[in-house]
Design brief:
The protein is of the alpha/beta class and about 260 residues long. The protein is built from eight helices and seven strands; from the N terminus they run H-H-E-H-E-E-E-H-E-H-E-H-H-E-H. A seven-stranded mixed beta sheet has the order 3-2-1-4-5-7-6, sandwiched between helices. The radius of gyration is 28 Å and the shape is globular.
Length: about 260
C-alpha cells in the first residue's frame, strides 16, 4: 500500500535524515543521467525531490503521484508539474517519456505487474527508467522509521527478473544510503563519508537502496507468413495461361 504524501513530504523536507537520503539518492541519479537537455523527464510515486535538478534543463518535467498516496503541489517556487493519477492509468500519451524515475512507487504497489506495463507504455523507444527501491539486505529496509521500511524490499536479482518479465532490459545498477538510518548527529554528519566508503567496498550489498536503470525492449514483429511471401512474390498475371500464337489464315507455311 502506498504511503501518505503528508508523511513522505515530512520525511524528505522536515527531517535531517530525510535530507541526507535525498542528497545521496539525487547524486546517484545525476551520476547515471548527467544531462537531460531537451528530454521529457517524469517521476512516479514520490520522485519529486529527485527531479529538481532536471527542471532547468529538461524540455518537460512531470511528477505523477498515485491517488492512493495523494498529491502535493511541486515545486513550491514555480509552476506546478505534479499530477494526481490512477496507478495504472497515467494521463499522458504513449511513448513520450524519455527518462522516468520511480521512487516509493513499485515496492508499495499492490499491482506491480500492471504498473510496470503502464511504465512500459509511456516510455519512448530508447527511453530509460530508473527504479529506486529498498535493498532487501540493507539496514534501511529493516526500520519503519523511514519510508524505505515499508512495502516489499528487493534483492538485485529479484528486481531484474521482474523487470525482464515486463519487457524491460536492466542496463546497470548502483547503490546508495550506506550510512545507518539514524537521526543521531554523528551519523548524519558523517553520512557523506559513509557513502564514499560504501561505494568502494560494495555496490549492492550494504546500501540501503538499489538504483537499477532499465531500457524499454521493443520486439520486431514476427509473422510466419512474411518470409514465404517474400520468397514467392505474387505475379500480376499469376494463374492466367500464357498466350499461344495463332497460325496465319489463307497462306501456306511452306514456300
Amino acid at each position: 500500500m502506498h504511503l501518505d504524501v503528508v508523511d513522505l513530504k515530512a520525511f524528505y523536507y522536515r527531517t535531517s535524515l530525510g535530507r541526507v537520503a535525498q542528497r545521496a539518492i539525487r547524486e546517484k541519479i545525476r551520476e547515471i543521467w548527467p544531462d537531460a537537455k531537451g528530454r521529457t523527464v517524469a517521476g512516479f510515486g514520490f520522485a519529486a525531490p529527485m527531479l529538481r535538478p532536471f527542471l532547468p534543463e529538461a524540455r518537460r518535467v512531470i511528477s505523477f503521484m498515485p491517488d492512493q498516496q495523494g498529491v502535493m503541489p511541486w515545486p513550491v517556487n514555480g509552476s506546478n508539474v505534479s499530477v494526481l493519477c490512477e496507478e495504472t492509468k497515467w494521463p499522458i500519451q504513449t511513448g513520450c517519456v524519455d527518462r522516468l524515475v520511480v521512487l516509493h512507487g513499485l515496492e508499495t504497489s499492490e499491482r506491480p505487474g500492471p504498473l510496470l506495463d503502464e511504465m512500459w507504455r509511456v516510455l519512448a523507444p530508447g527511453g530509460r527508467v530508473l527504479f529506486v527501491v529498498p535493498n532487501r539486505s540493507g539496514l534501511w529496509a529493516r526500520r519503519d522509521a523511514t519510508p524505505f521500511g515499508f512495502g516489499r524490499p528487493f534483492s538485485l536479482g529479484q528486481l531484474e527478473v521482474q523487470l525482464q518479465q515486463h519487457r524491460f532490459l536492466p542496463e546497470r545498477h548502483l547503490a546508495a544510503l550506506f550510512s545507518p538510518p539514524s537521526q543521531k548527529r554523528f551519523w548524519l554528519k558523517t553520512a557523506p563519508i559513509w557513502e564514499r566508503v560504501g561505494q568502494a567496498v560494495s555496490s549492492q550489498l550494504a546500501g540501503g537502496v538499489l538504483l537499477v536503470e532499465a531500457s524499454k525492449q521493443v520486439y520486431a514483429p514476427t509473422h510466419r507468413g512474411l518470409p514465404e511471401a517474400v520468397r514467392r512474390p505474387l505475379e500480376v498475371l499469376e494463374g492466367i495461361g500464357r498466350p499461344v500464337p495463332k497460325p496465319a489464315s489463307g497462306r501456306s507455311t511452306v514456300d
